[in-house]
Specification:
Helices cover 16% and strands 6% of the residues. With 105 residues, the chain is mainly α. It is elongated and about 95 Å long.
């Protein structure tokens, strides 16, 4: 049995697929676990023996869709952006009469 070219031709089964959480092709189908982020575990997989990997995946290396706006929200005192207007049926415009529902017969 050779260990080289002829053995590589036999590799046609997929062991890993795309992970829902990290998007890498590291989700092991039989183990049902991601080798990169540890999904479905609630904690992200990280080990201190691989400092470079932590550096690549840490906060600030992505888009920061939520964290990007925290400083300006903090500055504004975390006020909500809209007060919310009452719906049209509860309001009456000036110069108009409120709608009266017809009585059921």
């Amino acid at each position: 049995m050779t260990k080289g070219t002829s053995s590589f031709g036999k590799r046609h089964n997929k062991t890993h697929m795309l992970c829902k959480r990290c998007g890498r092709k590291s989700y092991h189908l039989q183990k049902a676990r991601c080798a990169s982020c540890g999904y479905p575990s609630s904690r992200i997989r990280k080990y201190n023996w691989s400092v470079k990997a932590i550096r690549r995946k840490t906060t600030g290396t992505g888009r920061k869709r939520y964290l990007k706006y925290i400083p300006q929200r903090f500055k504004a005192g975390f006020k909500s952006t809209t007060a919310g207007r009452p719906s049209q049926s509860h309001r009456t415009r000036p110069g108009t009469k409120p709608k009266v529902k017809a009585a059921a017969k």
